[in-house]
Every structure is written in structure tokens, then in C-alpha cells.
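PT: before anyone asks, these are the final sequences, not the draft ones from last week. 505 residues across everything. Please model them as a single complex and drop the result in this thread when it's through.
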Amino acid sequence: MVSLRGKKERLGAAAALIVALASTFAHGRALPQPREAVFAVESELAPTSIDRLVEQPLVVDSASTYRASEKAFADGALRPADYWASEEGVGHFSEWSKSTKHDFIADWALGKANEWTIVMGNEGGDLDSMASALSWAYHLSHSTLHHPQPRKAVALLQTPLDALDLRPENKLALDNSKMSSGHRDLLTIDELPAHPRAVAKQIRGIVLVDHPLPLSVWADAEVVGIIDHHADRGVAPHANPRIFETVASCTTLVARQMLDELEAIPGPPDGPGEYHMPHELLELMLDAIAIDSDGLNPKKSTKTDADVSRRVLERSNWHNESLSQVMDRLDKELGEAKRDLSHLSVRDLLRRDWKGDVVETTDTATPAIHLGFASTPVSIDDQIERTERKTLKDWFRVERRWTAEIRADVSICLNKYKDHKGNKVREIVLTVRHDHRINRTQADDLFRVLSSALNESFDLEEHPKMKHHAGKKRRQMVWVHGRKDAGRKVVRPIVERAVKSWISP
Ligand SMILES: *[C@@H]1O[C@H](CO)[C@@H](O)[C@H](O)[C@H]1NC(C)=O
Ligand SMILES: *[C@@H]1O[C@H](CO)[C@@H](O)[C@H](O)[C@H]1NC(C)=O
Ligand SMILES: *[C@@H]1O[C@H](CO)[C@@H](O)[C@H](O)[C@H]1NC(C)=O
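LR: through. Structure below.
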């Protein structure tokens, strides 16, 4: 425990830093770059962030992360002069998206956050999450436009601004939908006006799309709706809508609900009739469904995906083309973009598709653990080639920096690739750190527990590169295994269960 005096001193230092930061802002200098530290899902924000502010210069960025402050966005002060003006998106959809982001930030400053519903996808931030969140936010606000109190809804991408660029397929889809470059018409997590925990307490509620369970930072927000294609985790039984169905793409479920409700709005003279559905949005939906269903490949998708795609297509600008033509084309274009990760460093590969959160353990004396998963389509050998010294040790060094930044205790990297014979290979990399929530003794034990939980489910073999790496001692392991279905959807629950039931020695 820190003594009160020590704490006071640190608080004083932190306050000084904050003042310094604030004055930098006030003078409009030094636009801080969004940092990955936003991924840090800390359970106790205030104490840690202050500690970190004082102890590590790195964290200055973290403190300024949720920084699209009160006035900043409304008047654009913290942005470069050309922020809103240059390279604007030209679409109707882009305009709506940008003005919604603007209004949300402005209402926050005016103390009217309680009028807002935030629609959020998962923190991996793939195209499906992005399209689902944008579509549902658009629907919520437009379907109630004729109400006395139209619903205010904004889509939140739970990835930082710069992480969006790690998904070339998202970039392409946004370009195709005539959105601004740099995604500045989208609200990303690092642009929230305050830490998510603070935002959660003030807003009207959240709608989850493409994930069944809110991240722990949103625990204080009411879940008012869920639309998802993962397993139902029993969250928010009274949410409305509350839709769980197994389909290729969550966007399918969002689009179906949206079109059903849209078509049910009575036309004049009894009602306002359908609201305007921009073709860019419809096309974004088709993009998401195409990439998740491999172009409506029957092995990868359901009849629902096909039926809904057809309805969306009919309203889009591509309606003169056949469904299979369009979906094949999109799958090919976006798929190519998605697979082209040759330019990414190991660090970027890890954060490109990172999903992590703090997992509470069942045993009350055992600390909660921040557990994170990366998935990559690149072998560990290929990744090692991308490190400075081209060694496994160097790979773990990059990994260690990344998990230090986001304060993860356990990290798992899942690689899937084809070997030169065309066989699918899966790799699991496990590391456990001892410097965040647990000490060495605990970390050693947790590493052992997780290793055996994984070994029970997958026939693990040590990766050949492990021969010359004292991995076990460092709690670093790379395994290879042959279980074909073992993507994150399969591995994550196994590891989560093992973490939850772990009892600290
Ligand atoms: C559909 O219409 C677009 C322009 O409206 C045109 O460029 C395209 O060739 C048409 N496709 C087919 C298959 O008719
Ligand atoms: C690690 O933490 C546990 C639980 O708090 C404690 O019992 C143990 O003595 C600690 N071990 C070391 C080496 O600090
Ligand atoms: C996995 O379990 C098997 C059988 O219990 C054992 O022989 C093997 O060494 C274990 N492998 C690892 C990587 O722990």
C-alpha cells in the first residue's frame, strides 16, 4: 500500500502534469497522437492513471487519450486547422456521421449526455462491427425523427483512430462509401470526451452489436439493446431489441431488423413513411456481409445472410447487378485488401485484431486478470522475420512492450496460416506477465494452469523455435496444433474459464 503522504505527493505531481498538459492544449500546440494505451481496460481508473502519469512518461498520452475535450470538438480547437475542411467525405452518409459525432461531443459539454445512446461494436473493430454499429445508430436516430423527442444515437468504434488503418479492408470499404479519409467522421474510442467509465455513467444507454457482453469499462451503462451472432451470455434480458442468431455476419441481423422496422413505418397520411436510406450505408452493409460470408459461400453462411443481402441490394445503387455478382466482387476486392498484411510490423499485427478485457476470478482472494487475444493470419516464423534481430526472443520483446502498454497480464496470440504444402496450421503463443496485477509466484502458477488447460483441449506440440528459447522459465510458449476449428471463438472461452477458476497460490 502507498502511504497517504506518498499518495499526496504523487497526486500533486500528477496535478502539475495535468496543468502542464492543459496549458499545452490551451495554446493549441502539440497535438498528441492517439495512442494504443486506449486499449487499456483498467479496473480502477483513477488510482492507476495517476500512478502511471507520475511514473511513466509514456502515460501522458494515456491521460490525454480520452481527450476530445469539452470545447475541443465543438470548435475544432485541438485539431489542425484543416481538420474538418480537408479531404471531406462527400457522401450523405459521411455528413450524417460527422454531424452526429460533433453533436454528441457538443452535448457532452452542455451536460446533455443523458440524451444519447451509444451503439458499439466489439473492440476488434472489424468491418462487421463497424458496419453494424453505424447502421444501427443511423436507424435509431432516423426511425424516430418524427417523434416529439427523436432518439440521439452515435456509433462508437472501440478502436483508436490509428488502429483503423490496420484493417485495409475497412479503409477500402469506407472509401467506397465516400467517407472522409482518416475516418474523421467516425467516433473512435480515443476521441470520447472522457474515459468510457465516466461516459458510461452519464449516457442514456448502450446498444451492443457484434458482441454479447459489454467491455468492463461500460459496466455502469444500461444495455438497452443487443444484436449479435455470438453465443448469448445472458446479458440484459430486457434489452430491446435483443437478437441472437447464428449467421455469418452480424450486419445481416442489423440490416434485417432495420429493414423490417423501416418498412413498417406507415406512409402518409397515417405516418411519415420511410426515412432516407443512403446508398453508401447499404453498400457498406453488403461489404460487411460479403467479407464475413466469403461472398455468400453456402458453407460459410446461412439462408438469412442471403435473403437479407438481397433486400439490401435491391435498395442499393448496385441493384441492376445480380446478388452473386455483387457479393463475389466485394468478397474478392475486400478479401484481397484484408489479406495484404505484408506491410504490418509485429506490433501492428498484435493490435490489429486485439480483443481483451479484465476477467474477474471466482475466488475472492484471487485478483482479476487482464486477458487479451490477438489473431493473425501470419506464422510465427514470418513474424519473427519482421523483428529487428529476427529472433523469437526479439518477437517476445515486441510482445512485451505491447502488453506493458495496455497492461495485460496474460496474452495469447493465435496464428493461422497455410504451410508450403497448403496445409492449415495453427499456432498458440502464451505469455503471462508478473508486473501488473500478479507477482512472479502467481504468474508461474497461472502460466502452468493455462498451459495445461490448452493442452487438454488441443494436442499441443512445442514449436521448433522453442528449442533454443528458455520459454517456460519466462512464461513464454509457442505451440503448434492441428485442431482446425480452433479460432478465437473456440480458444477464448477455454482460457477464460481457466482464468476464472484459477486460485492464486
Ligand atoms: C449497372 O449500372 C451501372 C451504372 O448505373 C453500370 O455502370 C453497370 O455497368 C450496370 N451493370 C449491369 C450488370 O448492368
Ligand atoms: C505473491 O502474492 C501472493 C498473494 O498476494 C503472496 O502470498 C506471495 O507471498 C507473493 N509472493 C512473492 C514472491 O512476492
Ligand atoms: C500435453 O499433455 C500430454 C499428455 O498428458 C503430455 O504428454 C504433453 O507433454 C503435454 N504437452 C505440453 C505441451 O504440455
